[in-house]
Amino acid sequence: MERDMFDTMTMTKTVGALCGTLLVYLLGGWVAETIYHSGGGHGDDHAMAYVIEAEEETGSDEAVEEVDFAVVLASASAADGEGLWRSCRSCHALEPGVNGTGPTLYGVVGRDVAAVDGFGYSGALVAVADVWTPDNLNHFLENPKGYAPGTAMGYNGMRKIEDRANLIAYLDSLDD
Question: Which CATH class is domain 69-173?
Answer without folding.
Answer: mainly alpha
